[in-house]
Write the structure tokens for this entry.
Amino acid sequence: MRIMGTSGCVFGREVTTRELVEEALPDRDPEELERKIGIATRYWVGAHQMTRAQMGAQALREALDDAGMDGRELERIIFINSAGGDTFTPATANAIIGELGLNGSCDCFDLTNACMGFMTALDLSARSIVTGMGPIGLVVVELIDPFLIPEEYRTYLVFGSAATAAVVGPTTTDGEGLLAMRLSNDASHPSSVIFRRPDQFGEPNMQVQFVAPNKEMQGIALTYILDSARQMLEACELTIDDIDWVLPHQPNGRMFDAILEGLGAPEERAVRVVDRIGSVAAAAIPYSLDQLFKTREVKPGDLILMVGVGTGVAYGTAIYRVGER
């Protein structure tokens, strides 16, 4: 499986950390908190301004343009999110097909696995392509800001909204594409981030909440990320020095720094996006992947390590070799 085209989109208005601190924590120093979380800005769409289908359709249009493809060449579209689609049923992927005028041309469905959703969809797409399907459009939309409130300041200060897409298909040359991937889940830890259905829990509003202390959350997440990456490198008989680019999950700036330090990867081999777009859940890795291809000198043969973690706990790693694009 190879990556044929990518996109990364933000919508709405740019919101500064200073603005949010002054609203949620007026007694705190905005500059101090900005340094602590490593986020200067993020983008908020607002409630009822755009649908997830509209955001996803735009992201997929741009990824198709990047791949030099027409949408009717796609055989499947997977819509990925961690905060819910526009509707519980039918799948929001159907609305994306409608937005793009692709009715009757391909299969589509929704997928969710917290912040690991893109990685899960990438694994599923690779398996689908091996059995003869493809190209496939992966669309990630995280419209989180309508569910944030100042009283839940830990989520209020870090989350943003974004949409990304990737078009994947069969490899065309030997040695390129997805070399290895391993995903796993461990339910023995209490979930650190929760987005409950009101009808299930009797709560009046839907809000994104952190339900574990910051240090505990970050300690658990860091352990799974580092162990997963190291195990994958060992299984592939590689070291971090063999990897040209490292794209980890980016829940905040401090965590991004800790991941790179733990892996022994210099920052010039990574693509920091969290400082500009905030924590965007499952969109973080594909957004940084798009920025990698658009802003760095990526060469055929380069190895990319993608490693993520999400509440659940879901975690995993992929190693990808770049081909001709």
